[in-house]
Design a protein that fits this description.
By secondary structure, the chain is of the alpha+beta class. The protein has helices at 2-7, 24-51, 72-84, and strands at residues 59-63, 88-93, 99-105. It has one domain (2-105). It contains 3 helices and 3 strands, in the order H-H-E-H-E-E. Helix 2 (24-51) crosses helix 3 (72-84). The two termini are 20 Å apart.
């Protein structure tokens, strides 16, 4: 799914008018891609921040509160995309077995 994301057109003009306003199907893709890429950027920033003081660090935890702004579909798609980039992620569960976050390894 990650490769298809890059192919969706997101370069719409800044000055939107009736002749260049995106179709509703395309706006869904634009919103999806924006959220997907925003979460990837968030993860990248967190990785850089956590490794800036310790280059030996090879993992980071994300709790659901941290990424609660993103729909579960986006979170799952990003996790699957990261697997294709040789990252490993493991769900973190509470005592009742509910997923409360995940840990990303590189």
């Amino acid at each position: 799914m990650g490769e298809a994301i890059v192919q969706v057109r997101t370069d719409f003009p800044i000055n939107i008018n009736e002749s260049n306003f995106p179709h509703s199907d395309n706006i869904r893709n634009i919103i999806y891609n924006h959220q997907f890429n925003k979460l990837l950027q968030h993860i990248k920033t967190e990785i850089i921040n956590c490794t800036s003081t310790n280059l030996n660090n090879n993992n980071i935890k994300f709790n659901l509160v941290t990424i609660a702004l993103y729909p579960p579909e986006i979170i799952n798609d990003v996790k699957n995309y990261l697997k294709t980039k040789n990252y490993k992620n493991v769900d973190i569960e509470d005592a009742q077995g509910n997923v409360v976050g995940w840990k990303l390894y590189w």
